[in-house]
Amino acid sequence: QLENFWRNLNVFRPNYYLYTGIPFSKPRAILRNDSIDFVNIPTIPVDSLIHYITGNNFQSIKDYEYFHHNKIILDSDKTSWLFIIKLVKGLYDFSQFGYHHESYEESEIGIQIVDELLLSFKHETERIGAKFCIVQLPVKEEVEYYKQHHKTSYNSLTEHFFEKYTVLKLDSILSNYSLDEIYKGHYSPKGNKIIAHEIYNWLITTDDLNTIITDSRYSISN
After folding, report:
1. Which residues are within 8 A (CB) of 79 and not within 5 positions of it... i.e. 6 or more apart?
2. Would you say residue 110 has pLDDT above 80?
3. Which residues, listed in sequence order, are joined to residue 186 by a DSSP beta bridge?
4. What is this structure's pTM?
5. How high is the pLDDT of residue 103?
6. For the purposes of burial, counting CB atoms within 10 Å of the CB of 153, is it exposed (0-12), middle (13-18) or buried (19 or more)?
């Protein structure tokens, strides 16, 4: 999902998506000496959140935050408990509330990080004798676009990665179904079943299921 392009750069999720229910959701990817490293983002209980973000521990990771005013997604209403947190913490200039989207192409560091992450996955799969494939997981709007235009809505950034890697594209497959059937916020059970079936069909047309993997961390069941 292209969403992960931006989430790789995020420390405190409300800095990217204001009304999120998940303040800290994944490690922050950074580049050190031309290789990927990660800043650990801790799991914080809700009742400790205010104390944490006003303390020294949060200050030590805040400098890694990519999003300040360049890409804020705002929806829902101002009754969210996270909106209160934003008021208390004062992390935002109110004039910046709203939809401020930086394009993928404008984020050079974002492109470099995704490139390094995908290359790491590719090297690991090749090391164990398997084949690396990216599975496209389109959001509802992207499938709707395909229904209307009969082509993928992706931009030049996506084409950049599609040229370098094997990609299992699913927007055309999912466009054959009602959007209400396959999306319930995230994918519905039916949507997940369709995607799993397409991945299975792709796997049985490759040699991957017959690959003998000697690394004890991996196993394959035929």
Report:
1. none
2. yes
3. 184
4. 0.69
5. 65
6. middle
pLDDT bin (cut points 50, 70, 90) of residue 161 is confident
Two structure tokens written together for 122 = 């590719």
Could you give the maximum distance between any two Cα atoms of the chain, in Å?
A: 58
Q: Closest Cα partner for 65 from 3, 8, 2? A: 8
Q: Cβ of 165: how many Cβ atoms within 10 Å?
A: 13
Digit-coded pLDDT (tens) for 65-92: 887 655 555 554 455 555 555 555 544 4
pLDDT tens per residue across span 39-66: 888 777 777 777 777 777 777 788 888 8
Q: Token pair 């509802």 is at which residue?
A: 140
Residue 33: which residues within 8 A CB-CB, separation 6 or more?
Answer: none
DSSP string, the chain: -THHHHHTT-SSGGGTBTT-S-SS-SPEEEEETTEEEEE------GGGHHHHHTSHHHHHHHTT---SSS--B--S-TT-HHHHHHHHHT-S-GGG-S-----GGG-HHHHHHHHHHHHHHHHHHHHTT---EEEP---HHHHHHHHHHSS----HHHHHHHHHSEEE--HHHHTTS-HHHHEESEE-HHHHHHHHHHHHHHHTTSSGGG-----TT-----
| Residue 146 CB neighbour total at 10 angstroms | 21
